[in-house]
Each structure stands twice: as structure tokens, then as C-alpha cells.
Amino acid sequence: xxxxxxxxxxxxxxxxxxxxxxxxxxxxxxxxxxxxxxxxxxxxxxxxxxxxxxxxxxxxxxxxxxxxxxxxxxxxxxxxxxxxxxxxxxxxxxxxxxxxxxxxxxxxxxxxxxxxxxxxxxxxxxxxxxxxxxxxxxxxxxxxxxxxxxxxxxxxxxxxxxxxxxxxxxxxxxxxxxxxxxxxxxxxxxxxxxxxxxxxxxxxxxxxxxxxxxxxxxxxxxxxxxxxxxxxxxxxxxxxxxxxxxxxxxxxxxxxxxxxxxxxxxxxxxxxxxxxxxxxxxxxxxxxxxxxxx
Length: 294
Known about the structure:
By secondary structure, the chain is α/β, with parallel strands linked by helices. It is built from 10 helices and 13 strands.
């Protein structure tokens, strides 16, 4: 029941109307309530244009919000509004979660990489000492590369059309984890043929294949046969849930991991940090599937 005691954990972005977070998180809050314990928490989405970012963050803090989940285009700009940065936000130079701590401090976290790793582990993908290839050179690839480096992978290949963009990420990874074997390579057939036979995890960190451009695929599907039979293919896209890449991976008898888990675990992390609560991933996945199938 929404009343004067309701606590708000909001999500801000521009645009924001497409966000599944309020629907899936509120379903999980309802599920968490029992006759013996009630979590009176509500998630709401707010469209915040860049020019209004600071006033929106300060206003939310003044109104007693638990915190703010942050999405495009604000992840980097909110850093200047934080009093403290968790090491996760320091590593990637961006924050997708602001915790309004009881002492008045705003603390920034980045949970995207943590969420991706949790969703992979949930699907039984072993990461320690594994050989990982990431397709992409943007913010998603950067966040994943840095977090996977921290997670103890064995070696990393960044595949991107513009090698210079990937090389910037490589340099950041080398500063963070100097001993890691990491290279930037062009995303072309000869590179895939050389890299894939030794790859344990192949990740699409681009928007290729995302709705409405659902026919897109970041790699020739025939090349997936080069992957070892134990390999996993992970796509950060969750709409559609089965991208052409993941369908091709399943056709090749490989483990396919969709991007919905990353969304779910960012919500779980927000609840852990801001409300000290553990939300159900199963409830959120069920609600998200219902929303995506409508």
C-alpha cells in the first residue's frame, strides 16, 4: 500500500518510457512482503533531461528517496554530484546507482558489470581463468572488460570495427590488471577464425540485434562453429530475448545467455545497497517475460 511511509527507489534517464525496471522491481517488492515483515518500497521512473540532472538528483535526495538508478545519458555526468565513489564506479568512470546515505552523502556505484557476471554465473558459466572475447568498443564493452578483468579471467580479446576505440579500453584494463593478457583486434572473419577456437565466453556488448533492428547479428553465424563445444555466448541485449546471435548459438549446441539477467541483477544490487533487501530474480524474470511477450 502506498502511504506516507512509502520509500522511493527511482530510476532516471532520457528517454525512460521503455524501462522495465518499475514493473519488475515492484513485483519483486510485493513478493518480498510477508505477514511478519513489510517492505514499503516503490520504484518509479522519471524522465530527466540532461539540463535538469543536478536539480533532479538534489531534489530526490531532499525528498528522502532511498536512491536513484541511473541510465542513459546520465551515467557519467552523475559522478560530479557524488560525495563518494565506490571502487566499481571509480573503475569504469560511470555510475548507474546513487545511494542517498543516512549521513547525507551521495555514493555512486556501477553495477552493470557485477550484474553481467552474476547472470553468467547463474547460468553456470565459469569465469575464473577463462578466455573471453567481447564484441564492441563502447561503454558496455568497457564496463564488462574492466569488471571481468577484476573477476580473474585468464585472457581477454576486444573485437571492434574501430580498433582504436577498443585499444583505449585495453589500456584501461592494463592499468587496472597489468598481468592480464588483453588485446584489441578488428572484428573481421580472419580474426574470429583465429580467436574463437580458444574462446570460453563470447560476448556481444553492442546494440546489434536490439529491437526494432532484430535481424542484426554482430558475427557471421557460421563462425560460431569455431567455438569449443563448452563455450557460452552472452548477449547483453534483452529485447528481443532471443536475438539472432543467441538463436545461432543454440543451433550450434552452445550455451546461450540472454541480457535479461543483467537488467534483473542491477535491480537486485540497487535493493541490496539502498534498502538492504534481497529481491527475487525469479519473480523479476517472470514479470519481465510477461512484459516482453505483450
